[in-house]
Amino acid sequence: MAQYGFFFDQSRCIGCKTCSIACKTWNQIPPGPVKYMRVFEWEEGTWPQVRLNFLAIPCYHCENPVCRDACPAGAILKEDKYGAVLIDEEYCNPSIVNCNRACWDACPYGSILFASDDKSEKAQKCTMCIDRLEQNMLPICVVSCPMRALDFGPIDQLIEKYSKKFKLTQQLKGMPEPDKVKPAVIIKERDPHRELVPYDVKKALELWRQRGPYADPDLPPIFNSELDVLNVNGTKVGRDKLVLKPKNIEELMYYTMNDE
């Protein structure tokens, strides 16, 4: 069996969601929670060491797809030509089988998707754009990325190509251990934080507090003490971690930045 997979460069991803939108367009998926390519955003650190993290994640078409093994109806298969993990819609009948979304429970990446929280909804997922592969085209998410953060091909060739340039991983912070399912993905983690332009932190804080050098002197300060900025408590942070398996549709939309 061949195994194709994805390369993701986290340092290039800017969270624009072009890949996700292109995927929905190509697959004629209406607006809503079904996103074969999900783009997660989460924050970390306090000023001045603040970072936004992004992860664009399709199905990783694992070598050992536990979703397939968990499905009581046998509706999930792994085909041989590309190693794609696919759902046979004809056999996926949650209302009849009463499977209680066993496939979703099994998948460590949350890649099994549903149109609503109704337990009778059929499962959906990334197809590896197998229809495009059969026409000698790359997956739509890969070709649509304006930052070239994605690549696709036989996973052994991707490893050979990128291991010469980068330190690779299959697990970012907040992701599950890859050993059990063996995902068909390699990831270049984001670059370390760099101070591109040297500046005086205390001076910058004071300018910020005073609303800049040209602010009306009658305006109150933005904050009272630098501790208000440097010691931010957890309640003031938004998406502060990667959550690959949201509990419901509302949470999925929140962590993939579609709650506004």
Structural write-up:
23% of the residues lie in helices and 14% in strands. The chain is of the alpha+beta class and 260 residues long. The protein has a domain at 4-64 and 127-193 and 236-255: Alpha-Beta Plaits (2-Layer Sandwich). A four-stranded mixed β-sheet has the order 6-1-8-7. A two-stranded antiparallel sheet has the order 2-3. A two-stranded antiparallel ribbon has the order 4-5. The chain starts with a strand and ends in a 5-residue tail after the last helix.
Mean pLDDT: 92
Percent of residues in beta strands: 5-15%
Report the biggest beta sheet as strand number plus sense, adding barrel if it closes: 4 strands, mixed
Count the E strands: 8
Features:
260 residues, alpha+beta, Alpha-Beta Plaits, 4-stranded mixed β-sheet, two-stranded antiparallel sheet, 14% strand
Briefly characterize the structure:
The protein has 260 residues and is of the alpha+beta class. It has 10 helices and 8 strands.
Furnish the topology, listing elements before pairings:
Layout: E1 4-9, H1 18-26, E2 38-44, E3 51-57, H2 66-70, E4 76-78, E5 85-87, H3 94-97, H4 102-106, H5 130-133, H6 140-144, E6 150-154, H7 155-163, E7 168-169, E8 185-188, H8 201-209, H9 227-230, H10 249-255
Parallel strand pairs: 1-8
Antiparallel strand pairs: 1-6, 2-3, 4-5, 7-8
